[in-house]
Amino acid sequence: MKTYSTGEVARLVGIGRATLHRWMRERKVPVPRVRRVACVTVRFWSKSDLEKVRTYKAAHYCKGRGRKKKIKP
Question: Cβ atoms within 10 A of the Cβ of 13, count?
């Protein structure tokens, strides 16, 4: 079974890693268990977890306007 890191899931879905972390913190998407591998804490996402994030994005995500441009004096 193929697993994905949090960064890979964000890239595959087309969102930023910070956005995915915010969705996890707000419990909008399922949060995989934390595992320790060689003294590093990681989350392993399954294919079904990836699809749930894609489904949430399709239903709720609207790309923002980004930063407002500064007006030069």
Answer: 20
In this structure, what DSSP letter does residue 4 have? B
Kindly state the tokens that stand for 3: 């697993």
Measured distance CA(34)–CA(44) in Å, rounded: 8
Residue 55 domain flag: yes
pLDDT score of 68: 67
Query: How many folded domains does the chain comprise?
Result: 1
Instruction: Report the predicted TM-score, pTM, of the whole model to 2 decimal places.
Output: 0.77
25: domain range?
A: 6-60
Cβ(35)–Cβ(42) under 8 Å?
Answer: yes
